[in-house]
Write a sequence for this structure.
């Protein structure tokens, strides 16, 4: 560890800082001072911790592009002054925000660790303290004169995960996140165990910069047997969308109705980009492996390989924001930009 690392703690809201409203009995976000008051242990940590907060903390269901931009700007403005960043965020959309930030922060060479909790910090059985304190410890790990973690992560329930590989899998268990297609980057036991061989190896020569141009003109369609033609047509004809991510069966398969093939060809001809993901929790898309994915080959759909839904949405918003279209979009999408995909 460096002499004394400087960590910026950013509070956006989420269960970690919530309290039950007396009248409605629903959980709602508290202000930051209240949250910090519950964790006096922060003063004992051997890092210099500074705090900042969204003016109005929110439930992460309300997170959107303007919040991602705000987070990216906070990191940009404080990048040289701090060794690492810990973001307190609701768990519901944490995997989306963390994936998004992984694309927005280009040439990142410091840790940005998202965490939160399943029980509010004021609850006797809360998971908030361990999650927060260990996130700060992981963000403070130092070696060879630099932070050891140099990417965006989620730390939750003793596991450090690559942000853009995560998905929320449980609304009740403390172990709320999975990283189905990439191993854990670290584990908290008696010691903090960091799998250095798995960390993202960023290019030392690249300058840190922040991309805040985001474009959300995309759709996401999960298919199921028996889907009506009217519903599919409505999704494919949604006005203004530039990209439609299809969560297909297995290795990227879809039902073979003639009308659907014709519709896919027509929309692709009009310039709509199709990205094919699998709706399986693990494994990857392999277009052409079965006859039932042949249409995707024909319309030159983009292969989403083993991207999570969250990373797939984030990557699309990021690439559309960069003005990427057509072949350029496909090439960039099928490239592993931040460790988010495994390519065969
Ligand atoms: N609804 C909460 C949120 O995402 C859930 C949580 O924080 O765990 O903000």
């Amino acid at each position: 560890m460096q002499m004394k690392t400087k960590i910026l703690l950013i509070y956006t809201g989420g269960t970690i800082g919530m309290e039950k409203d007396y009248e409605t009995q629903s959980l709602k976000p508290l202000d930051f001072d209240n949250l910090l008051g519950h964790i006096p242990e922060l003063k004992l940590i051997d890092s210099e911790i500074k705090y900042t907060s969204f003016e109005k903390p929110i439930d992460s269901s309300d997170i959107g592009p303007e919040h991602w931009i705000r987070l990216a700007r906070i990191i940009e403005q404080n990048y040289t002054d701090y060794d690492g960043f810990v973001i307190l965020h609701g768990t519901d959309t944490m995997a989306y925000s963390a994936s998004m930030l992984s694309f927005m922060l280009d040439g990142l060479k410091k840790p940005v660790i998202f965490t939160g909790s399943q029980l509010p910090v004021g609850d006797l059985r809360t998971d908030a303290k361990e999650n927060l304190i260990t996130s700060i410890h992981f963000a403070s790990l130092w070696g060879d004169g630099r932070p050891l973690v140099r990417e965006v992560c989620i730390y939750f329930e003793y596991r450090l995960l690559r942000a853009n590989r995560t998905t929320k899998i449980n609304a009740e268990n403390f172990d709320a996140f999975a990283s189905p297609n990439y191993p854990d980057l670290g584990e908290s036991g008696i010691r903090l165990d960091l799998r250095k061989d798995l960390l993202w190896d960023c290019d030392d020569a690249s300058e840190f910069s922040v991309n805040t141009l985001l474009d959300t003109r995309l759709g996401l369609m999960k298919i199921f047997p028996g889907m009506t033609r009217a519903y599919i047509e409505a999704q494919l004809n949604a006005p203004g969308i530039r990209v439609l991510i299809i969560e297909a069966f297995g290795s990227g398969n879809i039902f073979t109705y003639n009308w659907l093939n014709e519709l896919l060809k027509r929309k692709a001809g009009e310039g709509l980009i199709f990205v094919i993901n699998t709706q399986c929790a693990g494994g990857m898309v392999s277009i052409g492996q079965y006859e039932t994915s042949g249409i995707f080959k024909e319309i030159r759909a983009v292969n989403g390989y083993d991207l999570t839904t969250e990373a797939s949405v984030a990557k699309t918003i990021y690439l559309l924001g960069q003005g990427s279209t057509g072949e350029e979009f496909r090439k960039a999408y099928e490239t592993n930009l931040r460790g988010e995909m495994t390519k065969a």
Summary: The domain at 6-210 is CATH 3.40.50.1170 (Rossmann fold). The CA atoms of residues 153 and 163 lie 4 Å apart.
